[in-house]
Amino acid sequence: MELFYSPELNENQSVVKLEEEEFHHLSKVLRVRLGDVIYLTNGNGLIAKAELINKSRQFCEIKILNLQKFQRRKTKFIALVPILKQEERFEFALEKLTEFGIDEIQPFFSDRTIKKNFRFDRAKKILITAIKQSFNPFLPELKSPIEFKKFISELSYNDIVIYGDIKGTKILELKSSLLKPELERIILTVGPEGAFSEQELNSLINMNAIPVWLGEFRLRSETAIISLVSQVKIFFD
């Protein structure tokens, strides 16, 4: 089954037009033919089963056969992700976080960030590709990079902040805290290649952030954030 991204898809449509990259992928790469069945998502909870009914040189038209609407969970997962020196490692993290169903991705600069540039458009394309590959009906909201200390300073004390730490607690001990019905946001984060600075760790402590043990060995940042998200999600799937 092939899933295509169409942000214009809504519950009132009977026909959807695909253009540009999605059309090229359908027509030139997959060579979908008239009458073939495909699937579409708007990245906001809708997945449609559809049939290709018309194809020109620049666009195609897809007839909606049926529509399925998914509901977001009440608790929002936010991944506070360090921008890494090696772009491919950062992009790997974006891809896997999307596959795990993260709701929002907030890249950050820290005191020890080595690389400062961030390609927003490329990152957004990676998220779109990931929801298509994983059949995830929700495209994570991608934020522009922010300084770590600024993000932490603007959080509410009603938010739960969890960060990876070799001296942290095991995730099973947090079950009751994570499943509180009034909990709206869980912020998950790990340090950059050079780890959090002392000042950044103090800001986490002042926010009553919870350190979580990710294993006995030191993990790369992209591995650590994926591990952290996967552990927390066991209580919500």
Provide a descriptive summary of the structure in words.
There is one protein chain. This protein is α/β, with parallel strands linked by helices and 237 residues long. It folds into two domains: 3-69, Hypothetical PUA domain-like, domain 1 (Ribosomal Protein L25, Chain P); 76-235, Alpha/beta knot (3-Layer(aba) Sandwich). It contains seven helices and twelve strands. The protein has helices spanning 20-29, 87-99, 120-134, 148-153, 175-178, 198-206, 221-232; strands at 3-5, 15-19, 37-41, 46-55, 59-69, 76-82, 104-109, 141-142, 146-147, 160-169, 185-189, 210-212. Helix 2 packs parallel to helix 3 (120-134) and helix 2 (87-99) packs parallel to helix 7. The model has no long low-confidence stretch (mean pLDDT 91).
Report the radius of gyration as a whole number of Å.
20 Å
Gross geometry: elongated
The arrangement of helices and strands along the chain is EEHEEEEHEHEEHEHEHEH
Whole-Å distance between the termini? 23 Å
CATH hierarchy class name of the largest domain: Alpha Beta
- CATH domain fold name of the largest domain: Alpha/beta knot
- Helix/strand/pairing category: alpha/beta
Mean pLDDT across all amino acids: 91
Q: What is the H level of CATH, i.e. the homologous superfamily of the largest domain? A: SPOUT methyltransferase, trefoil knot domain
Q: Name the poorly predicted regions.
A: none
Largest sheet: 7 strands, parallel
